[in-house]
Amino acid sequence: MVSVDINCDMGEGFGPWQMGNDAALMQYISSANIACGFHAGDPRIMRETVRQALKRHTAIGAHPGFPDLQGFGRRNIAMTPDEVFEMVLYQIGALQAIARAEGGILHHVKPHGALYNMAAKDRKLADAIARAVQQAGTDLVLYGLSGSALIEAGEAIGLRTASEVFADRTYQDDGSLTPRSQPDALVEDTSRAVARALQMVQKQTVVSTNGKTIGLVSQTICLHGDGAHALEFAVAINAAFKEAGIAMVAP
Fold this sequence. Notes:
Elements: E1 3-10, H1 22-25, E2 31-35, H2 43-55, E3 59-63, H3 81-101, E4 108-109, H4 113-121, H5 123-136, E5 141-145, H6 149-156, E6 160-166, H7 190-202, E7 205-207, E8 213-215, E9 220-224, H8 230-244, E10 247-248
Parallel strand pairs: 1-2, 1-9, 1-10, 2-3, 3-4, 4-5, 5-6, 6-9
Antiparallel strand pairs: 7-8
Helix pairs in contact: 3-5, 4-5, 5-6, 7-8
């Protein structure tokens, strides 16, 4: 049977009343990427999201980002590789402690936003992130954009990796994500998101904004928890996968 992971960025509020759709989304995913307080989240939200994940037997992942609450971690920040290493290690450690306190374990690490996109192309930053993940725990899985420098960096030091694709984002001809500042960067239609998810899993391809068919490795599919259609997409993709005989399993 074909299987794939569905992951979702979660815990991205700030304050006790900004949890969004996380509780509802949790039943339709297999792994959760939990913000660690730098781009979003706080200790209370981190703890509550971990509890929800444990309740649903969802794999728990750290979602470290730049220290940029105002920009939601989506603005590029110039940092040295050593600074990135320390920043990522710090955030992983915070969520590891909360997960352990709640009786769970950390399963994976997925960088957020600008940090993720920069590390997809900058091998020095990618190496710094991979090193932080390795030193936090060699059993952790590193999630990164399919075909990116981040996946290469993780594999180079012996980490388990999960090549990630996006059902709710569009692609450029080189396999990179369309910048959010450009038109058609986001997928807004549910049927389009479902069709893309099925194509990514069944054919291991995606069509770029220019109509080019791109090959990719699809081991985990991301849905952004803060997206306007996140819950609708999750329900529809989950149903489509069940109908197609695709199992939903964390890496």
